[in-house]
Amino acid sequence: MADFDFEQFRQDVLEGVSNAADAVSSAAKGAGDEVKRFRHFNEVGRDLFVSGSTTSHGGNLSECDGSTIWITKSGTMLGHLMPGDIVDVGWEFSVRDTPASMELVVHRAIYHALAELDAQAQRPFAPRAVIHAHTKYTVLRSLVEDTITPQDSEGRMLLGETVPVLAVEPAVASEKVAEALATHVREGGRIAVIKGHGPFAIADTLEEAYRLISCLEYSSELATHLDMLKKM
């Protein structure tokens, strides 16, 4: 009978303990990331609804790391998000898309355009976020203008001289909207408005995307009141 190799046994035990510890650590990190992501979605979704930036079941949020897209489910209430209201989908179309927001086609096209820009610059994909809202004054001005021109200093600083209004039909969850916004992103755009439907904003985080949405709505409201004063 061969001698028992205690040293090999010790190494096997240590390796097993190490692997188990790594698995626990990885699981804990994954759970921590999921909790952090939900907190961000929940906070921004609530702010969008409370600020009047969307209707009860309107609007959608997403984040992407270059391979996975996390997006709100179809028909969710952004002001009352639950953990199950955020789903993860792949980089390309699949059956996993079924519960996701109908605007996923647009969000995905935006992320693909961003990935192209990163590849052209020979840099790794940087995590991004996209918000689509139904802000009242922004939508109102999109019905009568081809561009929205911020009159206030913060608006010009954050949004630029003008924000384009894209007249695309169908305006909701269509490939044509996806193509139009992807082109806008490739040209360096961060925010645009779909005529009669609302703005899409792209930023590094949900908070920054919401800032763009909020700033555009403020600028649109000021411009609307300014028009009224000019007519008095």
Relevant terms:
alpha+beta; 6 helices; 232 residues; eight-stranded mixed β-sheet; L-fuculose-1-phosphate Aldolase
Q: Your description of this structure?
A:
The protein has helices spanning 6-50, 104-120, 136-142, 153-159, 175-186, 206-230, and strands spanning 60-64, 69-72, 86-89, 128-132, 147-148, 163-166, 191-194, 198-203. With 232 residues, it is α+β, with helices and mostly antiparallel strands. It has one domain: L-fuculose-1-phosphate Aldolase. An eight-stranded mixed β-sheet has the order 3-2-1-4-8-7-6-5, with helices on both faces. A hairpin with a 4-residue loop joins β1 and β2. α2 (104-120) runs parallel beside α5 and α4 crosses α6 (206-230).
What general outline do the C-alpha atoms trace?
elongated
Total domain count = 1
**Tally of separate helices:** 6
Strands of the widest sheet, in order across it, are 3-2-1-4-8-7-6-5
Low-confidence stretches: none
Per CATH, the architecture is 3-Layer(aba) Sandwich
- Percentage beta strand: 5-15%
The value of Rg in angstroms is: 23 Å
CATH topology: L-fuculose-1-phosphate Aldolase
What class, by secondary structure content?
A: alpha+beta
Largest sheet: 8 strands, mixed
Average pLDDT score: 91
**How would you spell out the order of helices and strands?**
HEEEHEHEHEHEEH
Fraction of residues in helix: 40-55%
- Any idea what the CATH superfamily is called? Class II aldolase/adducin N-terminal domain
End-to-end gap: 105 Å
Count every beta strand, where a strand is a DSSP E run of 2 or more residues.
8
CATH class wording: Alpha Beta
